[in-house]
């Protein structure tokens, strides 16, 4: 990866799938929709995932204007993305889950049907996935359309995982889900460190000599 940018469809797909973290989102998604019927729960999850995907698509095409307006360099954005991924990976390693289960699943949890917040934003499309999308769809990114295809595929797979979240949780159990979450956190931490190093190198190469 150059400057933290995936150069193949599979690397883009895998990286964003780790960031979207559908396994870690199964518990909060189920907790926030537990009062709905199974059919309605699936409809709500599908709707929220579609909204989250649309948000990422919008940032994919409008992100270049953000970079042009703010003057942010790709190297700087790469460093920022690497740091954010590192923090997410560390949380997945040592805490597990998305960190929202305890806040949303308590006795006082809202019983209305969730819309937009917090399922679509920030659980599905969060700051890290948005930052990565802006970075990899920047005008300087040679493989930006590869990233876009990988992004759509990762969103589709995440949607399927969340639609079958109740079955996954029943089959693997909460302990199994958390074990897989920690494994994904380890991989994401390694990728984050590489992104930081690539970001430093890219930023250094743009400095005046």
Supply the helix-strand structural class.
Answer: mainly alpha
Low-confidence stretches: 97-110
Helix content: over 70%
Number of domains: 1
Number of helices: 9
Overall morphology: globular
Number of strands: 0
One letter per element, helices H and strands E, the order comes to: HHHHHHHHH
Largest pleated sheet: none
The span between the termini is 25 Å
> What portion of the residues fall into strands of 2 or more residues?
under 5%
Task: Compute the average pLDDT.
Answer: 81
Rg over C-alpha atoms, rounded to the nearest angstrom: 17 Å
Task: Write a short abstract of this structure.
By secondary structure, the chain is mainly α.
Per-chain topology:
Elements: H1 9-20, H2 22-32, H3 38-70, H4 74-94, H5 101-104, H6 119-124, H7 127-136, H8 144-163, H9 165-206
Helix pairs in contact: 1-8, 2-8, 2-9, 3-7, 3-8, 4-7, 4-9
Any descriptors?
single chain; 209 residues; mainly alpha; 9 helices; globular
Please tell me about this protein's structure.
- The protein has 209 residues and is an all-alpha fold.
- It is globular and about 65 Å long.
- Residues 97-110 have low confidence and may be disordered.
- It starts with 8 loop residues before the first helix and ends with a helix.
- The protein has helices spanning 9-20, 22-32, 38-70, 74-94, 101-104, 119-124, 127-136, 144-163, 165-206.
- It has one domain (9-206).
- Helix 3 (38-70) packs across helix 7 and helix 4 (74-94) runs antiparallel to helix 7.
- The longest helix has 42 residues, at 165-206.
- It is built from nine helices and no strands.
């Amino acid at each position: 990866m150059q400057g933290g940018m995936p150069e193949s469809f599979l690397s883009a797909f895998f990286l964003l799938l780790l960031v979207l973290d559908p396994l870690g989102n199964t518990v909060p998604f189920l907790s926030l929709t537990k009062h709905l019927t199974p059919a309605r729960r699936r409809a709500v999850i599908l709707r929220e995932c579609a909204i989250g995907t649309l948000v990422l698509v919008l940032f994919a095409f409008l992100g270049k204007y953000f970079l042009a307006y703010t003057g942010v360099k790709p190297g700087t954005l790469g460093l920022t993305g690497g740091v954010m991924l590192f923090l997410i990976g560390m949380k997945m390693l040592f805490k597990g889950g998305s960190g929202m289960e305890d806040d949303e699943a308590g006795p006082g949890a809202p019983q209305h049907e969730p819309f937009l917040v917090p399922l679509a934003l920030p659980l599905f499309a969060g700051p890290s996935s948005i930052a990565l999308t802006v970075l990899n769809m920047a005008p300087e990114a040679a493989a930006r359309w590869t990233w876009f295809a990988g992004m759509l595929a990762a969103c589709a797979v995440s949607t399927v995982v969340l639609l079958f979240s109740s079955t996954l949780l029943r089959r693997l159990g909460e302990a199994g889900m958390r074990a897989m979450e920690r494994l994904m956190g380890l991989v994401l931490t390694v990728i984050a460190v590489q992104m930081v190093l690539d970001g430093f190198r890219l930023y250094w190469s743009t400095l005046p000599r």
